[in-house]
Amino acid sequence: MSRPQEPHRQFFPFGNPFRSISPKGSNFSSKLWAILNDFERNLAERLRKLHPSGKDDVLSLSWMILAMELLCETHSDVKNLIKELELPVTDWNEKWIDVYLDISVKLLDVCNVVSSELSHLNQSNLMLRCITHNLDSADSKRLTRARASLDEWRLNISTTNSRIKNCCVILDSLVESLDLPKVKNSAKGKVLMHALYGVKVQTVFVCSVFASAFLGSPKLFDLKIAATYSWGQTFSSLQSDVNSEIRSIYTHGKFTPLKELEAIDQCVANLRQMIPENPEVEEVQPLKNVISELGGKAEKLSEGVHLLSKEVDNFFQIVLAGRDALLSNLRKV
Asked: What Pfam families does the entry give (predicted)?
């Protein structure tokens, strides 16, 4: 499943062009400063929570669930920030609207791709349940079928969903559009663009990790964040540690980078070796412990995929609601 690594991608090597709309030196009211500072403080805290405590955290379902939860919170914060700014849609620059709508439709596409991949994992898990059922039976024919099914499972799980490649194209376009429209005469507009930059950076990072988990090769970005962002150093540290570990995982050529799936694959490999080509009924008993272990790991994967699917759906609904609200307001203008 592993493929040659892509070269490290460096963005904004000469400094972030977004620096030009930094609020420093701008004529901001105390209320606007408070709104922006609250948003950035919350963003920095979420990035800190995502920092892995160890190597096993990276590309684990538990980390991915947390990442999606925190991403949902940030996108909800943007919705609240827009309300707090009391910036009616009639005052929105046409470019701001285009940026917001463009981001939202791309994120909805990403959600659909991730949901499709999680559905693929669920289908593979159902296959494992059938395999363990056959292995539990004292029947040599079923053992033979189970042996062949283990090979089928490995082939199925290593097949890359073509839609994931689509997700990579979307991520590339999101990175290319990180340089948001410049704002000259609107303090509220500057706060809005400042917040949208933060949410886009977090979104690109999280989605790139998800793509790396499912793609079969690392899909990572090395984003350079200007010092004018209070959360920049926290993000850079997080990005460096997570990207380094993912690249290390692929360097070692593992069957799959997803931790829970890798654990299942090890059990499958052990079972595959223990079942002879022409198994006898009495050979079932020595397999019991490994079968039980496989069942437990498959159940853990199933629970993790279920929880992650719920968070992805929640994210989809948050993005969709924000998009619908903007479009609704535009119709009233």
From this structure: ROH1-like
